[in-house]
UniProtKB/TrEMBL annotation:
Homology family: Belongs to the RNase H family.
Catalytic reaction list: Endonucleolytic cleavage to 5'-phosphomonoester
Organism: Desulfosporosinus metallidurans
Gene3D superfamilies according to UniProt: Ribonuclease H-like superfamily/Ribonuclease H, Ribonuclease H1, N-terminal domain
Positions of the RNase H type-1 domain: 77-203
Keyword Nuclease among UniProt keywords: yes
Protein name: Ribonuclease H
EC number(s) recorded for this UniProt protein: 3.1.26.4
Functional note: Endonuclease that specifically degrades the RNA of RNA-DNA hybrids.
Listed transmembrane segments: none
Length: 209
């Protein structure tokens, strides 16, 4: 399945063809009875826009904010996490496909100023490294995170008050269209959330046994 480059909104706050997901999302998120669909080519988008079909093949109902990411076509689910110990922070992330880890990475952060945010610095680093990897691969990802600020800073629901979070927001907004967020509960038995938690800890030599 190819990457969606065009989005048609037939029912939303604003209708028409959008060439990026953030604009489409702004039109349909929270809109009761929203009808939209993504396409790889503009020709396909125009054909569906002009057709009588109103309801997408894979959608029947209203999108809720916490379910919106599930409607997207993504190439990989990516779990991210961070850790901290003795003045150092670390990150870990894993690309998941069909329930299997296909790529993983971890490391230790080197920004002394960022380290003041302890494990949150690692959470941010994990997401940024994952997005950079997605950009290199030219894929779209769904980012699973257990710290609320990861998505709320980007959405503007939380104010980015320091240089680290402000730089993070700038970076993520520059890469909109490559990712969507999905919040998960930390230490709740989620297989892959626990997996990347171990990755982050292992980068610092923290025992996970």
């Amino acid at each position: 399945m190819g990457k969606k480059k065009y989005y048609v909104v037939k029912a939303g706050a604003k209708v028409g063809i959008f060439n990026n997901w953030p604009e489409c999302q702004a039109s349909v998120k929270g809109y009761k009875g929203a009808v939209f669909k993504g396409f790889e080519t503009k020709i396909e988008a125009l054909e569906w826009q002009n057709s009588k079909e109103r309801v997408p093949e894979d959608f029947n109902g209203n999108y809720k904010a916490d379910e919106l990411a599930e409607s997207l076509n993504v190439d990989f689910d990516v779990y991210t996490d961070g850790s901290y110990q003795n003045g150092k922070y670390s990150y870990g992330y894993a690309f998941i496909k069909d329930g299997q880890v296909v790529f993983e990475s971890n490391g230790v952060g080197e920004d002394l100023e960022a380290a003041k945010m302890r494990n949150v610095a690692g959470e941010i680093a994990a997401v940024q490294h994952a997005v950079e990897r997605a950009k290199t691969l030219d894929v779209r990802i769904r980012i699973y995170h257990d710290y609320s600020g990861i998505s709320l800073w980007v959405s503007g629901d939380w104010q980015a008050k320091n240089k680290l979070t402000q730089a993070y927001v700038t970076f993520m907004r520059e890469h909109q269209g490559l990712y969507e967020f999905k919040k998960v509960a930390g230490h709740s038995g989620d297989q892959f959330n626990d997996y990347v938690d171990r990755l982050a800890k292992e980068a610092l030599g923290i025992s996970t046994k």
